[in-house]
Amino acid sequence: MRVNLKNILFTNLLIIITGYFSYGQYPFVREKIENLPNFDNKTLHYGYFIGFNNYDFKFEYLDSYYQIDKLKDIVVEKSTGFNVGLIGDLRLNKYFNLRIEPGLYANQRKLLYPDQNELPNKEDKIREIKSTYIHLPLLIKFNSIRINNFKPFIVGGGSTSINLSSNQKNTDDNLNNVFRLKSPTINYELGIGIDFYLTYFKFSPSIRGIFSMKNEIIQDNDPNSPWTSNIKNLLSRGFIINFTFE
Fold this sequence. Notes:
2 helices, single chain, 9% helix
């Protein structure tokens, strides 16, 4: 069963928003000594993050792919990659912060092509795609009310990803086992997380979805290439888990 990442994110966002408006109905929540009580009053602060990613592809095929060629979907075999980067946070008001989180994202995906006459050999049905992104997001962080030493938040915005392993300028193509992608890409992002106020710093685990809005595939030199000719659009999708220290 395929999990719909967007539905998961929107469901969790709804839970956080509901909790935000419901908190005022429960005045009996026991107060504790607050760590870093003045942290959120800073106009500007910095930090860093480390984390993991899991990237997928969304395929949009030509109509003939199913109706005439009667081919099955290309399968993406995913693997877990890593993220690391810096954080710059600008306080706009009590509830909103503007954030920039430049980072390095590395991952690997494998495309498994369905059986077809044009690809008789097993090795021709597999394409390994390694990606190293310079990821540059500009985000708005919406903060809920702080409850003792934790505070849920929602984050969203846009980003660009420069793929250093895209092979965009490579003249070889899939005939030489080179799968080419365009770089950079443009994405939108949506995520949720929780700020934990510890004794000396703020620790924030979060999950986020990254969705490309720009076709990334570069067609092979042969217009009838079995690897690319049936693909109209190829869009990256990423599921990110970050641990931030501020």
